[in-house]
Each structure stands twice: as C-alpha cells, then as structure tokens.
Amino acid sequence: MITLVDAAGAAGVLARHREVTVLCHVRPDADALGSSAGLARALRADGVVVHHSFDPGAVPDPLRVIPGTDRVVPIDEVPEHDGLVVALDCASPDRVGDWDRLTRSASEVLVVDHHRSNPGFGTHLFLDPGAASTASMVLDVLDAGRYPVDPELATSLYAGLVTDTGSFRWGGAGSHDTARRLLAAGAESRAVGFALLDAHSFPWLRVLGQLLSTARLDPGAVGGRGVVWLTVPHEVVASADEADVESLVSHLQGVREAQVAVLVKEIRPGECAVSLRSRPGVGGDGIDVSAVASALGGGGHPAAAGCTVRGDIAHVTARLSELLV
After folding, report:
1. Contact at 8 Å (CB) between 83 and 29?
2. Where are the alpha helices (DSSP H) in 67-172?
3. Is it true that domain 3-197 has CATH number 3.90.1640.10?
4. Where in the chain are all domains bearing CATH 3.90.1640.10?
5. pLDDT by 10-residue block (mean), the chain, 325 residues
6. Where in the chain is the domain with CATH 3.10.310.30?
7. May I ask which residue range the UniProt record assigns to the signal sequence (predicted)?
8. Which of 287, 321, 322, 290 has its CA nearest to residue 305?
9. What single-letter DSSP state applies at residue 15?
10. How many angstroms separate the CA atoms of 210 and 206, rounded?
C-alpha cells in the first residue's frame, strides 16, 4: 500500500531514519542529479549516513559542476540496509538501477517525483505533476523539515531548476520564486549556467554542423503541426560527449515549422534512446509527447519526454512515425 504525502509528510519520513540511500534515475539529467545531491547534502549535515548513487554511477562531465557529485558511489557498492531508500525524479522503478536489491531490506521507500506518467510506487509517494522540477520539490521538503540551505546545496537544486524549466521558459511564477530563494542562499548561477547550458568542445562544432545538415522536416505530421527529426548513429554517439549529443534536441525544438522535435540516438548497436520535445502552437495547444514516450515504455512530461527502445534507427523511427501521424 502506498501512502500519499506532501512536503511535510515527506520530511516526516526522512526524520525517522539515520541511514538513507538516495537514488535518481539512470543516465541522470541535472534535475535528477541536482535534487539527489542536494538532499544527500542536507541529510549528511544532519548526521545521517547517506549512500548517494545511480546506475551506472559515472557522473557525466558537465554535471560535475553540481556540488556533491564527487560523493556519488557506484550502484553495486551501495549496501542493503533496513533504513530508508529515497528515489528522486524517477517516473517508475525500472528507471532505477538495482531497485529490487536496494529496496528489499528497506523499512520505508520514499518517492519524490513530478512526472505525470508516474504510476505510483514505494511506501510513500510525494508526487506533484505541476511542479517545475524535482529540485523545487526537494526544497519544499527541506523547508518543511527545517533543514538549512547553504550555498552548495542551493547550487545543486538550482542546477535542476534551471535545466528542467528550459532556463525558465517553462513553468510559472513559482519557478522564479524558487530561483530567488536559491540565489539568495548563494547558488552559483553563472558556473551552473555555463557548464549545463553553453559549454561544449571546439571539435563538437564541426560534428554539430554535419549532424544538423541531416535533419529532416515532416510538415504534415501530427495533423499538420509538423515534426523535425534528427538521428545520430552509434559511431557518433560513442565518440562524442553524451551531453553534447543530447543538446541537439534544443536546436531542433527551435524550428518554427514544427511543434514536435524528435532526436533518436543509437546508444549501442540495436538500441536507441529517444528524446521528444513539444512546444505550444499559435492557439496555445501542444502535443503531449509523454504519451508517445509511454507507448514505447518511457515517460516524462507533456512538453519533454523520452524512452529507450530496442531496435536500430530505422526500426525506431518507423515506430515513432506511426505514433506521430
């Protein structure tokens, strides 16, 4: 049975434990890693034994700007214990590596998430699909539990907030209020902004030009609202920085002639990771790309979603085309 909790309820769960495993989803983005690093720091400052991890446990270089990522341990080094397991920014348990082993001895499992596609799991669930980021939800939990927020913790949470809101292009006034709080607490906005939103290597510029020249526009897709496609073969994915490859979707979603952007990356032979983005049309209506991702075993938000699909690029793009008619 799952107990639904709010921020105060989640803080109450945390207060009951002196050993906590903090997990985020596989191949984490800045919200997953920033929210988990921030929570881990707050708990350690309170004297809690914390195991912070994700699968596979190697922090991508751009995300090393997030304070606390140097204390992430490989998932297979996290011990089982009878305390608390916290899953952050995870839409389903299969998005967490080694989930069964890490939770089988835990007395409680707290899930904090803002994905609408989350079916509900764990013993306690703090789910808010209206939240701009999991990082902002963690701040609410810390406030409810009266945990102090120092500059490093604020920077970790700010990293999640600024990326999941698309540099505040999405989300309402609450996102700006949260940013004000974190900046006042000492968040390093410039360092985070450059590392996560702007930085790339010089050789990537040439690769970027070559890849973007292969983008394809289908103006008649999704009822005439248009889809722009880009596929990245495995040999490019294997030789490039993961964050650089993922940044391609930002270029696609700026195309005026398409409301939906699709990036298909062959992460290994016979397996592709898909990133989907949607923006509102003139009338304000947008395509819910989380429904597309869910149909392929993934999830996310109406405007940003993803999935991992077995098959080569041709197979995966064909399946996506069937869903984006």
Report:
1. no
2. 99-103, 134-144, 151-164
3. yes
4. 3-197
5. 98 99 94 98 99 92 95 95 98 90 97 93 97 97 98 98 89 90 98 93 93 97 96 94 90 95 97 93 73 90 90 97 94
6. 202-323
7. none
8. 290
9. H
10. 6
